[in-house]
Amino acid sequence: MAKITVGLDIGFSAIKVVALSKEKEQFRLVSLGSIPTPQPGMASDTEEDLENLANAIKKLFAATRIDQRDVIVALPESRVFTRIIDDLPYLSDNELSSAIRYAAEEFIPMPLSDVNLNWQILIRSAANDKNARTVVLVIASPRNVVAKYLKVLDMAGLRPKALETETIAVTRSLVGNNPFSPSTLIMQFGATTTDFAAVSKGLIWFTRSISSGGMALTRSIAQRFNFELNQAEQYKRIYGLMEDQLEGKVVEALKPIVNIIAGEARRVIQAFETKYPSNPIKRVVVSGGGAKMPGMVIYLAGVLGLEVQEADPWYSIMKDKNSASKLAQDAPSYSVAVGLALRED
Ligand SMILES: Nc1ncnc2c1ncn2[C@@H]1O[C@H](COP(=O)(O)OP(=O)(O)OP(=O)(O)O)[C@@H](O)[C@H]1O
Ligand SMILES: [Mg+2]
Predict the structure, then answer these.
(1) How far apart are CA 27 and CA 189, in angstroms?
(2) What atom of ligand 1 comes closest to residue 214's alpha carbon?
(3) What's residue 328's pLDDT?
């Protein structure tokens, strides 16, 4: 029987799950689904809230008929510390490990003993090269954050095969490791945060997370029109950034926050291009639920002056004809879960 891998994305507003099977080097969709996240979800520390969360996950697995217990889970970008260290000479594995520990002291605002440190080598030139250098992507996950995820998974009867950051997962589903794909800015536009990653040659060279996301947009509409949150949410989804709707009033409420997000995108692009001038960003891929906001892709294209696409994490995955159009509607929401399920090892 084909091996099935399961990706689980516990978002602030929705929990998403995707199961894929691998047949002859091709992934095929087995099952997918989502369920609203019981509030306050992972933000809470109480036993009861975490139990509610675990129950929602159990329900989701039952509804999607996924009986695998081994899962790959995402850690939120906003809770981990990610940095590219690019000023190292050629180093052996042992030397690299101590150099990373030393460098990590600088960018991690907590004792090293409180984090799990992982890294991925982006460049390591040959030892005898006279300009030899090593570039690494370092990820520090606070142990208390990891522990909370493990606890919820345990309560849900699941076994974590791996935990990785949202950015690593979306990079896998949206860009893959194609060394020829153009340098890309991925924007992961979730409910509470927007995460940015500059990706080139299939590798992550720059990341950032800001605390403006879809919720902030909804709140802004609620304030402007004196609406309840769920009515504001409807307005956001129906009118979004369409200038010609409701005399542009919804756009007016959304723009200050959208501009914060777009401005950060511009800064990330600039910072990346200053560091790697030979690799300019050629396109932007917008992912996460917020990518579906009417007018968002066009607005970003105008502000950034780049080609902007809505994320399609399903493009490389086999699925039957019936599900293809259904999947397209909600595609950007599944980028993290698909990327997790695509992890191989
Ligand atoms: N059609 C739409 N138009 C505008 N916004 C939308 C639309 N559909 C979903 N959203 C917004 O997307 C957000 C949810 O997206 P997503 O599922 O990616 O977030 P999450 O993973 O739950 O959150 P986070 O990543 O912050 O934990 C919500 O803020 C929701 O309002
Ligand atoms: Mg999310």
Answers:
(1) 26
(2) 29
(3) 85
The finding on whether 11 has its CB within 6 A of some atom of ligand 1 is yes
Q: Is the pLDDT of residue 323 over 90?
A: no
Domains recognised in the chain with CATH numbers? 4-79+143-218+250-341 (3.30.420.40), 81-141 (3.30.1490.300)
**Helix (H/G/I), strand (E/B), else coil: 126:** coil
Instruction: Work out the mean pLDDT of the chain and round it to a whole number.
Output: 94
Q: Kindly give the number of the ligand 1 atom that is closest to the alpha carbon of 34.
A: 17
Which of 35, 187, 333, 334 has the most ligand 1 atoms within 8 A of CB, as the residue to mutate?
A: 333
Residue 332: pLDDT band (50, 70, 90) is very high
Q: For the residues 22-37, what does the mean pLDDT come to?
A: 94
**118 φ, ψ (degrees, to nearest 5):** -130, 155
Q: Does the beta carbon of 199 sit less than 6 angstroms from any atom of ligand 1? A: no
Q: How far apart are CA 329 and CA 337, in angstroms?
A: 16
* pLDDT band at residue 329 using 50, 70 and 90 as cut-offs: confident
| Spatial separation of the C-alpha atoms in residues 119 and 203, rounded to whole Å | 12
Contact 8 CB / ligand 1 (< 6 Å): no
